Amino acid sequence: EIQRARSTSRSSPLPSLASVVMGATLSKMATGRRLGVVALLVVLGALKARRDARIRRQKAAKTSPTANGSGNKKPGTASKKAKAAAVKKRIWSIIWPKRYFAPGPDGAGSIELLGLVVLNLWRVWTLLRYTVTVQSLDKIIITRDRVQWRKALLTSVFNGLETAFIEGLLRLLRARLGMIFRRKLTEALHDDYFDGNASYYHVESAVPDADTRITTDVKTTAAGFAEYTGSLLFTSVSGGFFLTKILLEYGPVFAGTPFVYVVGAGVLIGKLAPVDWSLLGQLSVARAAYRAQHTRLVMHNEAVAVLQGKGAEEAILDTRLSAVVAAQGKVD
Predict the structure, then answer these.
(1) Which one, of 152, 146, 103, lies nearest residue 132 by Cα?
(2) What is this structure's pTM?
(3) Mutual orientation of helices 110-143 and 146-193 as an angle, nearest 10°?
């Protein structure tokens, strides 16, 4: 009986510790991948639901705008957002190249956009090499190898100079792109400004600060769109590279976690601290009125001096300045 028991135990041995650990590890990996796929599907579903809700609000605002006490139709918040989105879409259609690398205004900005893509790829490669250099420096500090320390330190200095050179070129290309955007926007506004017989007269009657909008506001808008384009290209290039790397090495859970954070934080910020963009418009109007009052005083300085109107003019300037300070305080 004892011999039969021994032979039975030898013929059916218990699983080894390595096989148990391997099985548990594979089970965890499979579970992690399933959780990653589920998390990714949840994020995509949330984004689709948010997009569908925004489209429904825009359609509802277009078909049924709200009415105020006087009976005039006043657009709601969704209608304002739809109008702002339409304005942005028209701006992009004006400033973006119609045909890439085409001669003339249709292809203006294509070279700058290509340069931004190439420089962002170069910056990612530089960042990877700089990371390897920093890791080498950490190891050399422990081993105290002076020769390797000097080599790694020199490589780090060259990496820093290379990064500064790339950043300078990126700033130059963004500035050139902003000037191209500004010219396109200004030419489009000039076409609208002089469209028809004396249309500029009607524009000045409806918009008292048209000169400020064509000069200062267009410059600010063009620079903002150029900076946004540069940031978008950098995020697309570097984010696409590192996202692919994380996805291949660690799975969809770690790759999808930043997107969950970004979406959640964006929704939370929009609920807790909504941005009132109308304050910027109020600040622009106040600045234009203050500047126009100075221009008026320069043009009519002789009449003001003869009629002893300096007190009234000074009071008007103080009032306009107070309006600028109040608007700036709301923005800040």
Answers:
(1) 152
(2) 0.62
(3) 160
d(CA 59, CA 81): 12
Helix, strand, or coil (residue 255): helix
Per the structure block, which two tokens stand in for 166? 């790339």
Residue 58 in contact with residue 78, Cβ under 8 Å? yes
* CB half-sphere exposure, 17, CA atoms < 13 A: 0
Nearest residue to 331 (alpha-carbon basis) of 268, 272, 277, 266: 277
The span from the CA of 202 to the CA of 206, in Å, is 6
Indicate the SS3 state at residue 67. strand
In sequence order, what are the residues at sequence separation of 6 or more whose Cβ sits closer than 8 angstroms to the Cβ of residue 179?
A: 222
Residue 74 belongs to what H/E stretch?
strand 73-74
| Cα-based torsion angle of the residue sequence 163, 165, 166, 167 in order, rounded to the nearest 10 degrees | 90
Mean pLDDT of the chain: 78
Weakly modelled stretches of the chain, pLDDT under 50 = 5-26, 28-30, 65-75, 198
Neighbours of 270 (CB within 10 A): 10
> What pLDDT was estimated at residue 162?
92
Q: Where are the alpha helices (DSSP H) in the chain?
A: 2-11, 17-63, 77-95, 110-143, 146-193, 199-206, 210-212, 218-250, 252-272, 278-299, 301-306, 310-331
Q: How far apart are the C-alpha atoms of 94 and 104, rounded to whole Å?
A: 14
61: amino acid identity, one letter: A
